[in-house]
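[Q] Does anyone have a clean structure-token version of this?
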Amino acid sequence: MTDRSLALNRPSSQKLLARLLDDPALVETVQRLAPRALHGLLRHIGLEDAGEIVALATTDQLRQIFDDDLWTSTGPGKDETFNADRFLLWLEVMLEAGEDFVAGKLTELPEDLVTIAFFRHVFVLDMDELAVRMAARSDDDDLTDKALEGRLSQEFDEYQAFARHHDGWDTLLAVLLALDRNDHGFFVRLLERCAAMSAEFIEDNGGLYDVFTSEEMLEADLASDREDRRAGEGFVAPSAAASLLKLCRITPPKEAAIDERDPITRMHFRQMAAKRAEEAPSPAVRGSATARGSGRSADLEALIASLDGPTVAHAGTPLLLRAGKGRDRRTSEEALLNQALLILAEKEPGRHIERRDELAYLCNVLVAGGAIDGRRVRPFEAVVGVAAACNLGLEELVRSADRARGGTLAARGADVLAREGADRLFRVGFGLACQEAAKAARRTVKLGPLDADQERALAGLVSDIPYLAGALWHPDARGFELDRERQFVATRAAVDRIRAFPG
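[A] Here you go.
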């Protein structure tokens, strides 16, 4: 089925929601969904319209969805920060299922998450402690009045919660009251932690700096815990990804070919190994998981995957490189990386799986830390971009390898691929492409006025992830297209053209 026909046959968000609500086994269907499949469903329907589905989600599902949904980045390579406004929207949607439902879910979530979310929306003051401080320092009266003037508030025993913003106060107050009723111990701990941070606002002449420092420390702890969880699932922190790409750009290809694995990649795969060892299921659990993946939930997950389109491969899942030929044909027209992977899969299946995991990791690096023309890299672009860089890296390493071993180019490529990790191929290929593109860009800007084809070529050379366009576009990059007019740097021939540009 073509992409166009798939798009035409995708159900609208309302039809999909109606189909779910008509399902007699709705609770079981939703709760058996993988968290990211459920997240994809909610995105397609729209969170504001999905209250009925959210009400059925388990706490484990919500916890992982929050890891994905509540963190945003201002740009490529910038670390994600907690989005308190998005959390408020989640509270509003969850309230459709009732205040007790929201309170129950919040008490099962990490306390750091709930604390930072509420502190972003309310100041909590211990009024008895505040009175003592104000009595000791008379100049506090005006300062406190100015800080709290006109704020909505609610008293809870010795504490008083003040709204930072008027928007959403009714929702926050309803949830706070429900927490007080349903789990007073949790509620008191929440107020105490918020009050401790808010007190710094009063402590040092208004203390905005101290307050935000305290807030940032809590968010940093929360972000660190989240990164640890997500690292075991194959995700890469944007700052780490940006650092790795920067390292690739400045390391000469010859050094990259012999250097040990970089510290960021070493740490990532150590965390992956530890996570897998920790979560390795028993045979009985594996059998149960297999059964759980069948039926309605599996069908729905497949539908959701089709709605979201191409996504980045997570470690352990197949990475499909675009090849113009079938798996049973290895011709000189097919990318060397593809040919080598196919041979390796037949000769050393275990090593092939390792290389696929490395390729998946690299895709996540490009999505988290890379940019094309100043915008973020899309998942499908990351797959093709990683394949291009690794193909170029493999060509370089095969070219410098001992040819006395004989065999076809593809066989020698498979031998190199078996010895070297995909991350090393990427460092060599990506570094070579970036460094040659930078040299060509410097030569080109000295020419003065450029024609349209040269301008398009220059735009590709100066991109964070360089590509070939305009005068540098060439048909030998088949299978590595960014789009119809741009290609990734994937072959030695492409590098030679960059070196000769602008001629």
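[Q] Thanks! Anything notable?
[A] Strands lie at 71-72, 81-82, 122-126, 153-156, 159-163, 371-372, 375-376, 467-469, 481-483, 486-488.
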